Amino acid sequence: MEGSFQCHYCAKPFSQKIHLDNHLSFHTGEKPYPCSQCSKSFVYKGSLKNHMVTHTEERPHQCRQCDKTFSYKNSLKYHMMTHSGEKPYQCSQCNKTFTINANLKRHFMTHSREKPYHCTQCSQTFSLHSILKRHLRIHTGEKPYHCRKCDKAFSQSHNLKSHMMAHAGDKPHQCLQCEKAFTQKYDLTIHQRTHTGEKPHKCSQCDKAFSNISNLIGHSRRHTGEKPYQCSQCDKAFSQNKGLNYHLKKHTGDKPHQCFQCEKAFTVKNELTIHQRTHTGEKPYKCSQCDKAFSQSSGLNYHLNKHTGEKPYPTAV
User: Fold this and answer.
1) What's the mean per-residue pLDDT of the chain?
2) Where is the C2H2-type domain positioned along the sequence (predicted)?
């Protein structure tokens, strides 16, 4: 009988038990088909079979806009969307769009009111077990995705993919207002907001707004006091992962990024880049409302407040 097998998580009906079992994996995060050559695992046997081809050297499908090659025609098709920016699958409940239907389906489940997966270390709840599993890495510090070319490791696979593109020097997404280029289109979108001043992510507890969602999440923790990123070498904790990473370098004293024009050295590359502008005079952050320009995005953001009349810091009385 059609629809006789029902998912007890979301009530979706299925005509066959095997289809229900496959669907349940999206809720539980179970991936029973592991790859024998790398750490990846898959929900479907067919997906594993397709993945195994990536370990062979055969990649007959080549992109005409860059040098990338692919094992499957479909993979090339999805890659081409990174050049065109095409995202044909739109969520009916919000404005998000996706390159593939599977990502839309996974996203759609986040709109479900039911969030049965609770984090035991904080108050957050999740609609999918796989999302909870990723979230727990914030508390444990686990980074299962290792780069084969250097000693870096990542908590999420997409961060490793972006990092690998940096090794290859592949930065297909270039800013039209300055010379910066990025491995991912999302990073370009965020960067472009430093030129436009756009801040679409608004805090629900105060009037602050941010150019990207991660900064909003970090800011929201100032209201809640949550600091999930704990230093393993002292009792300090941080609201954002980047704060912890920066702090850890103070324990090691490691300053690997050295200026070639003077003797100064820095813990992170971004600090070196900003410092080098004192030598070059470069000011890539231009105000869209006047002819002023700045060496740092923070300088531009502070300046834009003068145009809007916003006073981000309280005046002493």
Assistant:
1) 80
2) 5-32, 33-60, 61-88, 89-116, 117-144, 145-172, 173-200, 201-228, 229-256, 257-284, 285-312
